[in-house]
Design brief:
Elements (H helix, E strand, L loop, with lengths): L1 E5 L3 H12 L3 E6 L10 E2 L3 E4 L11 E4 L3 H13 L3 E4 L8 H14 L3 E3 L7 H7 L4 E10 L23 E7 H7 L5 H9 L6 E7 L6 E9 L2 E9 L1 E2 L2 E5 H15 L5
Parallel strand pairs: 1-2, 1-5, 2-4, 5-6, 6-7, 8-10
Antiparallel strand pairs: 3-4, 8-11, 9-10, 11-12, 13-14
């Protein structure tokens, strides 16, 4: 496939390299206008542009790796052009105006926005369970204190001197978590969209000095029974806030589009 990528941070760079290894062509990379002046082409011949309107003809699919604002800015234009899109910025969909704009653009362009599983698993179980009655879904995210730098946790906890017991710095709905923690709570949004929605999914976010990885837990109860799922994920080397599994899930999602048989 001929791919366009939004962003070239830790996840974007990983995705770019893996796409080339899997036989795809990266035709373009969308970056901020201020970043165009010192870039010409990327390894593999990708062209740098600053908007979805400038994407070259022949792009089959666009992958957003740049965050909530990038999805708001570029997503509707990509979808209106009839180009399918994959995003890791699932938390942006907690904003109803963004959700509505993307849905309308996809309808106008007869295109589709694909959401990746990101740093969490068991979403297939949640999707199946909601066919019946899902009575409760809770997501708990535990990360080392340093991984919460740059988030509202800084105003609630002394992250540099947190010792001993873990500290909860957020409890509330997935919608509020996704809005207040745009760089940390995409997992909460993914759980919400797979299960009972943003307003009925309960979220707890914790800084834990006793761990070195990111720990994600889902607990659900419904007609199907109940389950508890936990994953301990490593970050990408270039960014402690970016999950390695989230980057891998982008490639996995795209592979599903190209396989004749598969999950």
């Amino acid at each position: 496939m001929n791919i366009g990528i939004i962003g070239e941070g830790a996840i974007g760079s990983y995705v770019h390299d893996q796409l080339l290894k899997h036989g795809h062509t990266v035709q373009a990379v969308i970056v901020l206008p201020d970043h165009l002046h010192d870039r010409a082409t990327k390894a593999g011949g990708a062209r740098y542009v600053s908007s979805a309107a400038d994407l070259p003809d022949g792009v089959h699919h666009v992958i957003d790796c740049a965050g909530h604002e990038a999805l708001r800015t570029h997503g509707p234009e990509v979808l209106r052009r009839g180009i399918d899109m994959t995003t890791v910025s699932i938390g942006a969909l907690a904003d109803e105006s963004i959700y509505r704009s993307l849905r309308q653009a996809a309808a106008a362009g007869n295109s589709k926005l694909h959401l990746v599983s990101g740093a969490i698993g068991a979403l297939d179980c949640l999707r199946a369970a909601r066919v019946g009655n899902l009575r409760s879904v809770t997501y708990v995210g535990r990360k080392p204190p340093q991984s919460w730098k740059g988030s509202p946790a800084e105003s609630k906890l002394d992250l540099d001197n947190l010792e001993g017991a873990q500290e909860t710095h957020f409890e509330g709905t997935a919608r509020i978590a996704a809005r207040e923690y745009p760089k940390n709570a995409n997992v909460a949004a993914a759980v919400a969209l797979a299960g009972v929605g943003f307003d009925d999914t309960q979220v707890k976010l914790i800084a834990d000095p006793a761990i070195s990885e990111n720990v994600h837990e889902i607990r659900a109860v419904g007609d199907f029974g109940q389950f508890a799922f936990e994953i301990r994920g490593q970050s990408l080397p270039d960014n402690p806030k970016s999950s390695a599994l989230a980057a891998m899930s982008v490639i996995s999602r795209l592979e599903q589009e190209t396989q004749s048989i598969g999950f």
